[in-house]
Amino acid sequence: MCGILAVLGCADVSLAKRARIIELSRRLRHRGPDWSGIHCFQDCYLAHQRLAIMDPASGDQPLYNEDKTVVVTVNGEIYNHEELKAKLQSHKFRTGSDCEVIAHLYEEHGEEFVDMLDGMFSFVLLDTRDKSFIAARDAIGITPLYLGWGLDGSVWFSSEMKALSDDCERFISFPPGHIYSSKAGGLRRWYNPPWYSESIPSTPYDPLALREAFEKAVIKRLMTDVPFGVLLSGGLDSSLVAAVASRHLAETKVAKQWGSQLHTFCIGLEGSPDLRAAKEVADYLGTLHHEFHFTVQEGIDALEEVIYHTETYDVTTIRASTPMFLMSRKIKSLGVKMVLSGEGSDEIFGGYLYFHKAPNKEEFHRETCRKIKALHLYDCLRANKATSAWGVEARVPFLDKSFINLAMDLDPEWKMVKRDLGRIEKWVIRNAFDDDKQPYLPKHILYRQKEQFSDGVGYSWIDGLKDYASQHVSDAMLMNASFVYPENTPTTKEGYFYRTIFEKFFPKNAARSTVPGGPSVACSTAKAVEWDAAWSKNLDPSGRAALGVHDAAYEDAPEKTTVPANPIAANGFAVTGAVEFTAASPASA
After folding, report:
1. What pLDDT is stored for residue 568 in this prediction?
2. SS3 state at 67
3. Phi and psi for 150 in degrees, rounded to 5?
4. Is 24 annotated as a binding residue?
5. So what's the pLDDT on residue 585?
6. CA 185: distance to chain centroid?
7. What is the DSSP string of 314-333?
8. Residue 231 assigned to a binding site
């Protein structure tokens, strides 16, 4: 991941303003520690902090067309850049960067080229010939981007809020799948797949087509000129990513440069069963496995940094981000700059516990649509910013544009839990990779059900967070929370504690409005709360109410601790999803 900052239409064009832009851009240097660049044209500034993944020697940014009249600063990866370059043979490319293709596509197609890009990206492009500009964000919002407005009429774009929050009167999270055009005077959606309208699809289930699409999604993300690995928790999603990457690594360009043995990474508290699960998968696949440990105190000590980097006060996101933040530092110390992770599977296939109570396939499908649309506020934000804090790039194969379109075009009847037919959650993807002749994973791992009472990080980690927050937030403070924080009022001492840290770094109203809120059960959207009348009386983001079994489990085993929103889950390190935890590390899916 890189860091981009663009300021267009400044009233001030002095050297002091340039110095200010450079100063603000440095706030993003953790995202791109390898090089810094800036292009100034009259009252427009495009700055870049580079993390060199592709073409480390010559791919510095900003990037240009042949005569430098088109300037672009990009954060992300364009996986189909070679295919696009082949269609632009009349153009001269200056670098080996996959992102340079954006400038030339603009020359050929104007503003209508964004849907040609296959990748994760946020970019700002300036056409100096008429001083027009565009900015765009990838389909799902894997890469972060913020849009702000200054009192002097300037328009700002930044990879993170911290680079524009001081200088903008108002700012928002740039919506995924959208483009901002100065000519059109605002935002419009460029990503318009059939599932976005939430209409109910009817395509029959084709397991081989689903498998092939996912394999392609993983293989294209092996595009790198630097060492990489896979985040592996031992759960279904991260195990599938690792299995496919391991199977196809030898045939890729990167294997010739860095070797054909896949590196995998896992983190947890000492003695976690999930660490053992990850090691079991790693041993089966023959990966070079790296196991990291952290303590509850180390996690608590990192909270302020985690909140500063993730730019959120959402409780479940902070809980989940902290181990990932600590792990990313360890990964970077090994010289690894890029990792593959398993975010997105639970949203696409309805893997969360509350989906068991979907009343019909129509509601099931609409909820998966809503979950995917919100990923940029939760899992994508966490996965990107927790890793980028240490200059590591996370790639997410499940959120491949083509794979999502195929999976979301599937008749949702196939995704629903049908115990009488032997279908557990995410059965369609499990079954797609069930190959007896050339198995990807052992069957007990492939069909391991999503854990409800796993010995994950909760018992020590979550209780430690709650106890620590209780020492810093009094009953009176929580009682008056609605007066102090009328917007997204915290309802727990833990939430109040995180909010105070967030407000210290980001005190403006616009900043707190970038964080979502609303009722939730087991990480559901507010709409899904309606599926069970009991949920509205017990709005808990954890899984305790999801299936109507958790309250009984508490009575039988009071020592168990419920963790709102799966602090660390199937993708390898932290997604939302409800589980209950009692000891350490990532919960298996």
Report:
1. 37
2. coil
3. -95, 160
4. no
5. 33
6. 29
7. -HHHHHHHHHHHHHHHHHHH
8. yes
Q: How far apart are CA 393 and CA 154, in angstroms?
A: 30
Query: Of 61, 432, 409, which Cα lies nearest the Cα of 214?
Result: 432
Residue 229 known to bind ligand: no
**Distance between CA atoms of residues 191 and 372, nearest Å:** 13
d(CA 157, CA 161): 9
Is 22 part of any known ligand binding site? no
- Cα 589 to chain centroid distance, Å, stands at 18
Beta bridge partners of 188: 179
Give the three-state DSSP class for 136.
Answer: strand
pTM for the full predicted model: 0.90
Residue 441 near residue 281 (C-beta atoms within 8 A): yes
Q: State residue 59's pLDDT score.
A: 81
Whether the CB-CB separation of 413 and 361 falls below 8 Å is answered with yes
Cβ contacts of 258 within 8 Å, gap of 6 or more: 226, 227, 228
| Residue 267 counted as an annotated binding residue | yes
Active site residue 99: no
Look at residue 54 in the predicted model and tell me its pLDDT.
87
Q: Are β-strands 579-581 and 453-454 bridged in parallel, bridged antiparallel, or unpaired?
A: parallel
* Catalytic residue selected from 2, 44, 168, 369: 2
Tens digit of each residue's pLDDT (9 = 90 or more) over 68-124: 999 999 999 999 999 999 999 999 999 989 999 999 999 999 999 999 999 999 999
Question: Is-cis flag, bond preceding 62, omega within 30?
Answer: yes
Find the Cα–Cα–Cα–Cα dihedral 114, 120, 122, 125, rounded to 10°. -40
Nearest CA to 124 among 108, 140, 143? 143
Best mean pLDDT range from 319-328, 446-455, 536-545: 319-328
Report how far residue 213's alpha carbon sits from residue 92's, in angstroms, rounded to the nearest whole number.
33
The torsion angles phi and psi of 43, rounded to 5 degrees, stand at -105, 25
